[in-house]
Each structure stands twice: as structure tokens, then as C-alpha cells.
């Protein structure tokens, strides 16, 4: 994934991005950090064509993000939104996970296999026939991840994946995400989660990238955190954490 000189202004004139450059190699896990209003969501909505660049370009797997490649781009880039209820709308979990592949033309045994595999990857295969609204919030988030995995994306974008999760659900989701063999871009305010899951982090502030490097090194930079309204939990020492290597 390659973003070059990306700029974007909303219709009301608010300039959200000012020439963002970002490259994420295949298989890397990267956290996108920054204060509210930094432009993080605006950036990720460009990755599968939900928003169209005002200037600059976005390329995924060698394909420019634009109308001519939109269907393929949206297969390759899956976005898991912060609220799982924004993605779950069918009567059963099975139907929710099947919706994307079925819309793309998959049928019969191949579709059933795709749905089972996606649910198995998030530990929800035993809930296929349940109504999503009967599941816990953490279970619904895992099903939302499965709906995206069922499309077999190359890039998984996660918007605040740990928000509103209890500690057990937070840990379970981290275990799942660590096992996925896809490129991950994770938007989060949860700095310990970023450190746990993403060896590299990028800090976006006021529409520009102000830091890009080792997550552990960035989180140990007190001046950087303070300047961009990023705060670690009380007593948390990122320098003492054994971090993943990938």
C-alpha cells in the first residue's frame, strides 16, 4: 500500500489532510496514532475508495484507487469499523459473513466453506446460526472482523478495535489479530494495544504525519506524546514491554 501526497478537503472547506506520504509493505502491522481530528479516519477512508483524493494518489497492490478498480480494491482492502453494528445487519451471523462473498458471486459449497473458515479464524464458528444482536459486544466485533476476512483481503484496516471491550475480549481479539497473515493498519488511541500488536507506528496530527518508526521508541518519547495529545495509562512503561517482531 502506497499513499503519496494525499490531500483532502471536505465539502464544507475543512482541510483534513495536507500531503500525506505513507508506505506499508505487505504483511506489516502498523498502528495509526493521533489525537481526535487529526485526519486518521479520513486517511483510511481513502484506502478503499470511500473518499476520493483531492490531490495525490493511493495505490493498493499496484492498483491506483479509483473508479476503474474500485471493486477489486474493495476486495483487497477490508475496513472493520469501530461499531460492529455498522457492519452487521442480517438475521444471522452466517448470513452476515456470507453477504460479501455472495454479492461477489460465490455460491454453494465454496461459499459455505469461505464462511466457516472466516468464523473459525475469529473463534465464532459455533455461533453461525445466532442473531448478531443476541451476541455480546466483543463477539459482535469478532463477527465484524469475520465479515471482512470472508472477502480474503490483503489489507485489514481496524478502526479502534479495542474500544468498549472488557479485558478478556480485548485479549481474545489481540490473540486473533496476531495470528492473521494479512497487512494490518490499526487506528487506535489505545497505546498499549498498539505496542502489543504493531511493531511500527505512524503519528498523524493536523493532517500531516509527524512521526513514523518503532512503536516502542515513539511511545517512549514523552515530548512527542505530549505535543500530540497522546497519553499512556498511568504507570505504564512502554520501555519495559517485550514487543513483537515482524
TrEMBL record:
Any one Gene Ontology molecular-function term assigned to this protein's record:
ATP binding
Is Chaperone found in the keyword set? no
UniProt keyword ATP-binding, yes or no: yes
An example GO CC term for this entry is: ATP-binding cassette (ABC) transporter complex
**Could you tell me the keywords of this UniProt record?**
ATP-binding, Cell membrane, Membrane, Nucleotide-binding, Translocase, Transport
Pfam families xrefs: ABC_tran
Q: Which residues form the ABC transporter domain?
A: 1-231
Q: Taking the first listed entry, what is the main subcellular location of this protein, grouped into a coarse class?
A: membrane
What does the record say about its membrane topology? Answer: Peripheral membrane protein
Its biological purpose is as follows: Probably part of an ABC transporter complex. Responsible for energy coupling to the transport system. Part of an ABC transporter complex. Responsible for energy coupling to the transport system.
- Protein name, UniProt field: ABC transporter ATP-binding protein
